[in-house]
Write a structure and sequence with these properties.
With 295 residues, the chain is α+β, with helices and mostly antiparallel strands. Helix content is 19%, strand content 40%.
Length: 295
Amino acid sequence: MDRRDRDGLTEREFMEKYTVDHYERPSVAADMVIFTVTNTEKDNYRKLPGKELRVLLIRRGAHPFLAHWALPGGFVRPNETTEMAAARELREETGLDHVYLEQLHTFSDIGRDPRAWVMSCSYMALIDSGKVRLEAGDDAADAAWFKVSYRLLREQKELVEDGSVKTQQYELKLSAEAGELVAIVQKTVTIRSTLSSTVYSMVSNEGLAFDHAKIIAYAIERLRGKVNDSDIALHLMPQRFTLTELQQVYEVILDKELLKAAFRRKVADLVVETDHYTEHAGHRPSRLYRRRLED
């Protein structure tokens, strides 16, 4: 027996009469925050190179925000899921498949794109810099890795009825040979007995397109939040690495120094030692490790 709605229509009759144009539809973009860790230049061959957290940006070759730097991304095609679109964009920009990829958030602020109603379903990818092959896409004039700095500038907390509001302002600084981009991102956390919310907004922005400074800030906080209780940092490592190199990666993500002994206890269950050692490093050979895979 066919069920009928309040207008007396069966589902088949309803679908025959339905017109999608009754509702305005947004465009959906998949924007990629692609992180990697690179070595700094060594000033002494006996010292290990330092590490830098970097994010991939493309210089826009078309309006809007012509010549501004932006996250790689594009519109989701009719035959794609957002995850498929993100994987396609990653492959087109870096030549890589099968890397760590997770959905961050859907950014849907009114007016975030001057062209139309565009929602961004953003993703974070972590890749080994040694495997990357950069290729600027069709609407990009250039592509480059930018060093990431994200630091708290000021914080205040206000008590309100039945809860509190904490406001933090962060400086996001992205540096490369192509120049320096700076944005101030505000994070407002409201906590009440019946609900809690976290809202990101841009206080100022120099050189980044759209609301991409906010998306990058969101991704950095996600990465920092997960690095302490998961093996996520290992997705930034080559197949074999030293424990010192791994500690350096944790430190550049968290932007703080870690105690060697405590760190090694922390990652003991995440890595497996190999029979390989460093070679031609200008210092005493160190054992190499690999990521522990699921049993």
